[in-house]
Amino acid sequence: MAMKNFQGKVVWITGASSGIGAELSKQCAEAGAIVVLSGRNQNSLELVKEKLLHPESHLIVPLDLEHADNFKELAASLIAQVNRIDILINNGGISQRGTAFETDEAVDRRIMEVNYFGNIALSKAVLPYMRNQGTGHIVVLSSIAGKFGFFLRSAYSASKHALHGFYESLMLEEEQNGIKVTIACPGKINTNISLNALNSSGESHGVMDHNQETGMTAEECARIMLHAVLKEKKEVLIGNKEIKAVTLKRFLPGLFWKIIRKQSAT
User: Fold this and answer.
1) Is the pLDDT of residue 3 over 80?
2) Domain span holding position 105
3) CATH number at residue 31
4) Where are the alpha helices (DSSP H) in the chain?
5) 266 occurs within a structural domain
6) 97, 165, 84: which is closest to 126 by C-alpha?
7) Average pLDDT over residues 85-113
8) Nearest-angstrom CA–CA distance, 122 and 113
9) Which residues carry out catalysis?
10) pLDDT value for 1
11) Spatial distance between the Cα atoms of 58 and 39, rounded to a whole number of angstroms
12) Among 57, 155, 214, 231, whose CB has the most other CB atoms within 10 angstroms?
């Protein structure tokens, strides 16, 4: 894949301390981008940064998507250091492993706060600078769970559905200002997402699900996603055979519901 379009670009990536975010950071750095790594754990971000090509060229901006009060200040501080933000990749988020009936409402609200409100707050903090530049690209990590609901994912799926509504609207509104939007919908990807998912009481699930363990590598997922950014795609489905369910639901909904209810939740 020709990655020359990333040369010299400032790419801000949330959830950069592991999984897809760490792999995106690696591939962007190898493509010549200036990578800004964000997440809650600064030590983990430092470990990722040290392994990047030309680590001295990249920056760390710790942030917590659950607490968005300082996002405007963080964006302003970053602009003061690097002058521009070319691509924002809203990768950070948290998953769920609990039934809707059993999940405490506080857990529902926390998942929405991280996956939706924190996500859009960072985009809104960056947007004025992209408008001023007359160019920019916002990439948002949804999920195939943003295309249909699934077992043990009620709040997670709801948060991802919400992202589609927000960013499809933003896509239309900001096109005239030179700003692009890409919504990425991964399926089963081999990351720690299930380990860190919240159970019905808000504790970590702590189990590597079979679906994640046997899923597409984070390296391949990141490669496909960055290719979609280069192609300025509005939406990209990423995964193996599981992503076919999106097409199936659209064209053969009766068959979709028969098949999906037989799938393993984990």
Assistant:
1) no
2) 4-260
3) 3.40.50.720
4) 19-30, 42-50, 71-82, 105-112, 119-133, 154-174, 193-196, 210-213, 218-230, 244-251, 253-260
5) no
6) 84
7) 98
8) 12
9) 156
10) 44
11) 14
12) 155
